[in-house]
């Protein structure tokens, strides 16, 4: 066996947990810019939705204001602070958060936990498509409250749609820069946004401190049950909008680190609560104000701002709305990466634009969400229609997360009583929010539910197909086939395909190979070569690892190469393999591969290469159950659209062979054909 540098060190590195992102001013700015965008813009529309659902400004009284604001405050406190910040952030998988990271920790607890994991992840991804559209459209519509801007834009909604689409396109284009760079740009803006929320709200609270009674949870409960609550339990659907970004906060943990969320959340929450209290104080001061009746879609957030400050506030809120979209986009990258690792989604090309492994970019996800946001904007056009679809799917995710957290607390952390109290309380609470949001279904909620169902079907199809494949997986010991490979490379009855025949394999067991690879070499017309190479790529938790290990099985013609590459390293397998071959040729482990023809005066000692990409396929004659056939067919249909390993591993300019091998070796028996002669047929 030969090896380069310290392969054992690389293996140890790849097994270590991702290092915790340290707390720092810079990291806290990134956190404010990346994590809190969604929940940070909720004051722009929560009170507006509460007001519209209870009859408008003429129905405002102290009972409504204190009760509604109390419900909002305690919704944020219970769901965001208690469930997500205090409990969920402790459940990380190598520093990564989100529902799939949580499932990867608890999946050994029960097989059926895959159901809430897929359901919750699908709903969150579906809501993530809607978030950029609804927040940006709401902010652009807010620009029309400035007379000078209204004179230019007018009331034509098409202008809002065009501006929104332009901003959405720019937002998704800049994702390639990485969340670290985006966070550094957005962080100062969001910091100023939260200060603006807190100060603007505090000014009204100081003028009407009676609104502080809203901190009493009894006020909220009494109003929820009061006959003066015209919306009934459905008011919780509007209150829930104040905490829709909580799940994204958990998903983004891998981008910024748990400690930085702990350090910044108190500041964020204080500013949010002050804004809600300030809007409540403004409503108390303007209850029954007939001058406000003429304002369509009255929004207390903008109306409470002084006339001189309002233009600045609207522009700032527009910037914050754009940043809000970032929280769900970055969260989606993490979610899909986790899902791929769990074999719930196809493997896709991943880039790591920053020095931190948690900060990643997946082009395929970016393009799909980009297209989805454009469809949402064109389909709904106005924020009022989009808000009707907003929040319903995320309640499903929260319930699923609660179920998984129960197993985490009970099975992993071995807490005895508290997990049962936790699951009963939060499932009941989130169940109320879910049923209160069901009224949104026919007003736009159907879109996110259908989108979630589509994503769920992809996951189920991929999961079921992979399960069938795993049952058929067959690893064979390489050493048992060394003699055949030796005879084949010397068998001149077959034309030599190339000097070096290369296969990529996901199998990490050095002494074994997938049956499909050996089937390709021997049975799909024997492939004669001077040397056979079997490559495996392992990504380490260090950013710049460049190491490899080689097993030659005591031969000079079979080589099992494992590349240990840092997550920041571009996986140009072709270039790295040439370096390995050069090292082995120089050490004498690989005999010279002479050539009589070359554009160079002196041909080098390394011959030609061909890469063989082996794909499993399901033959019509395969003896397989109809359900398994459907599962495999759906998985392979999804695989065709997920991208090509040829691009992922930098083989675009290499000589590549594509081969398909049957997934099942057992075929159905067919009826025996009887031979007849032409005279008989006539």
TrEMBL record:
Topological category with respect to the lipid bilayer: Multi-pass membrane protein
Domain K+ potassium transporter C-terminal per the UniProt entry, residue ranges: 501-657
Annotated transmembrane regions: 21-44, 64-86, 112-136, 156-174, 186-211, 231-250, 262-285, 312-339, 360-382, 388-410, 417-435, 441-463
Residues annotated as domain K+ potassium transporter integral membrane: 28-473
Pfam families found in the cross-reference section: K_trans, K_trans_C
Primary localisation category: membrane
Top-level taxonomic group: Bacteria
Compartments reported by the entry: Cell membrane; Membrane
Keyword tags: Cell membrane, Ion transport, Membrane, Potassium, Potassium transport, Symport, Transmembrane, Transmembrane helix, Transport
Catalyzed reactions: K(+)(in) + H(+)(in) = K(+)(out) + H(+)(out)
Family: Belongs to the HAK/KUP transporter (TC 2.A.72) family.
Biological function: Transport of potassium into the cell. Likely operates as a K(+):H(+) symporter.
Protein name: Probable potassium transport system protein Kup
Gene name of the encoded protein: kup
